[in-house]
Each structure stands twice: as C-alpha cells, then as structure tokens.
Specification:
Blueprint lengths: L19 H14 L3 H15 L5 E5 L5 H10 L4 E7 L2 H10 L7 E7 L10 E7 L7 H14 E12 L5 H17 L4 H11 L8 H11 L3 E8 L2 E7 L1
Parallel strand pairs: 1-2, 1-4, 2-3, 4-5
Antiparallel strand pairs: 5-7, 6-7
C-alpha cells in the first residue's frame, strides 16, 4: 500500500506514532524514506549468519514488521535458532503475526508485544536495533545498551542502525538536503516531507556518530565500527 499519510495538510500535525495507519503503509514508507534500506537488511542477514552461535538467541528490538528477522530466518535456513522480535506497537506485531507464514520449527520467530526497555535479553549471539534506538528517550539509551551487552554471549555482536546528526553544520545540511531530495525523487511531495519532519520532532532524536561509539565503548564493547553510512543514516556493528 502506498504511503500518503502526510499528503494532505492536517493541523495541528500530531506526533508520529506506529499505529495501524503507519503499519499498513510501512513497507512503502521505509523503502522510500531510508537511504540504503534494502542493502541494510540484506547485510544484516549476512552478519547474523556469520556471527550466530548455535543454540543461542537472536533479538530484533523494535522489529516493526519483522523485515530483519525474516531475512535472518531465511539465511539461517535449518540451523537451529530462536529469533525474538519485539515491538511496543500492537499494530506492528499484529501485522507480523498475520504476514509471517514461514513455518520452521528449527529457527522460529517469536513476535512479542512489549516495550524493549523491559525485554529480558539472555543467551544472545546477535542483537539488532534497526532504526529504533532513535525513538528511545535519551536518558534511557545507555541503560538499554548496557542490558544488551550484558545479555550477549562472548563473541556476540550488536548491530545498530540509526538516523544520525552531523556536528559539522555544512555536512549536516548537505546530508539532510540529499535525504530530502531522495524522498522527492521517490514520489513524496515537499508538503509531505515537511509535515512528516514536523511530526517526528521530539519523537525521533538523532545523535552523532561519536556519541554512539562512545556509548558502546562505555558499556563494554571491545570494538565498534561503522559498516554502512548513507547520507544521514549509519549502521554500526559492536563486538563483545
């Protein structure tokens, strides 16, 4: 279904939320809005296949429609695993349960309706947060990342994808302009882009790359790298 949520002017513009209206158009929305999204998902499945430890858990925190979980399930094939996909949006989890028709007892996906701040993380070899930390209040982010680190097995990995802010104003302006231009080329009107941006104010709070890397270091990850950057979006991999 095509995303036309912000096609008409709505005053006042309400804060963005992952409701049923968004869930219905989310595949189109994220594909047209996030630079490099298909590559991000594809390479996350490659990294999961590389670093998954037999008999361990894989967590997809803030799973939305479960795209990353399903990609991982497909690449692991018959390797015995448990994928735990968590989101606090009832609409998203309902869509996940309805649309995930892959029946595989060896590497099943458990879709859980829960605030990821309350998720018990244990026996994990791979943990993913794909554009979800940015929606967590700043004061809760370090505590969550610490719980992820503590729940990972030695040799486990944490994959974090986020919208980022550049400290250099010129660079930030260029990256933002390119992002908005991409959205225009993907069929969004200027009004839609500005309305969506307004709705995300105080809901999606991006940080710079240094903040992310420093937080990962502080909680105990021994190595953290950027493996992908496209305009003002980046993905990190951190090793325990």
């Amino acid at each position: 279904m095509k995303d036309t949520i912000y096609r008409s002017v709505k005053n006042p513009i309400k804060p963005f939320e992952f409701n049923e209206e968004v869930a219905d158009v989310f595949p189109d929305m994220i594909l047209r809005s996030v630079p490099g999204y298909p590559l991000t998902i594809s390479m996350i499945s490659v990294m999961a296949d590389k670093y998954y430890q037999s008999g361990s858990n894989i967590y997809d925190l803030g799973c939305s429609l479960g795209t990353a979980s399903i990609a991982i399930q497909k690449v692991l094939k018959d390797r015995k695993s448990k994928i735990i996909a968590v989101d606090n949006s009832e609409a998203m989890i309902k869509s996940c349960c309805k649309n995930n028709i892959v029946e595989n007892d060896e590497n099943k996906i458990d879709f859980i309706l829960e605030d990821i701040l309350n998720t018990n993380i244990f026996n994990a070899s791979v943990v993913i947060m794909n554009f979800s930390l940015q929606f967590i209040p700043l004061e809760n982010r370090k505590k969550l990342i610490q719980r992820i680190f503590d729940g990972l097995l030695p040799g486990g990995v944490f994959i974090l994808s986020e919208k980022i802010h550049c400290d250099n104003k010129d660079e930030n302006d260029v990256m933002s302009d390119l992002h908005y231009h991409m959205k225009e080329l993907n069929g969004y009107e200027k009004l839609e882009i500005s309305s969506k941006r307004k709705s995300l104010e105080d809901v999606l709070i991006p940080e710079n790359i240094d903040n992310h890397l420093e937080r990962l270091r502080q909680v105990g990850f021994k190595d953290s790298f950027i493996w992908l950057k496209c305009f003002n979006f980046a993905s990190f991999i951190a090793f325990k």
